[in-house]
C-alpha cells in the first residue's frame, strides 16, 4: 500500500534538484576576446598575404617531397599529409569565419536599428519644422506689409487733407 506524499516531498518535486558536477574542468573564456580572435583570423585569411604565405608553403612542401632535398621525403606524391593539413585548417577556419560573420551580422543589426531610429527622429524633426514654418508663414500672412501700411497711411492722410480743405473755406467765410 502506497503511503500518502507529505507536503515536504511535494515541495521537493516542485523545485529543481542539485546540479551534478561534471568530471571535466570548466573552461571560462571571454566571449569578446575569442570573437576578436575569430574576426582577426577571418580577416587575415581573406588577405593576399595569407594567399602568398599559403602558396609559398605549398610550393616548398611539394618541392621538398618531390625532389627530396637533404633526403627529406616525408610525404610522397599524393601528398596525403598536406591534404590532411588543409582539411584540419578548413575544419578550424570554417567555424571561426562563421563566428566572425555572426558577430558582424549582430553589429550590422544594431547599426541598422540605430539608423532606423535616427531616420525616424530626423523625420519627426522635419515634420515639426515644416509645421513651424507653415505656422510662421500664416502669421506673416496676417501681418501688414510695408506697402499696405504706406497705402493705408496715404489714404488716411488724403482723407485728413480733404477734410481740412473742406473745413478751411468755412473758417474763412466765418471770419469775414
- What separation lies between the terminal Cα atoms? 145 Å
Radius of gyration, taken over Cα atoms and rounded to an integer in Å: 46 Å
Instruction: Outline the low-pLDDT stretches.
Output: none
Order of helices and strands: HHHHH
Question: Could you provide a short overview of the structure?
Answer:
The protein is mainly alpha-helical and 176 residues long. The chain is built from 5 helices and no strands.
List keywords for this structure.
176 residues, mainly alpha, elongated
Q: How are the elements arranged and paired?
A:
Elements: H1 7-14, H2 31-45, H3 48-67, H4 80-142, H5 146-175
Helix pairs in contact: 2-4
Structure report:
Helices cover 77% and strands 0% of the residues. With 176 residues, it is an all-alpha fold. The chain has a domain at 144-176. α2 (31-45) packs across α4.
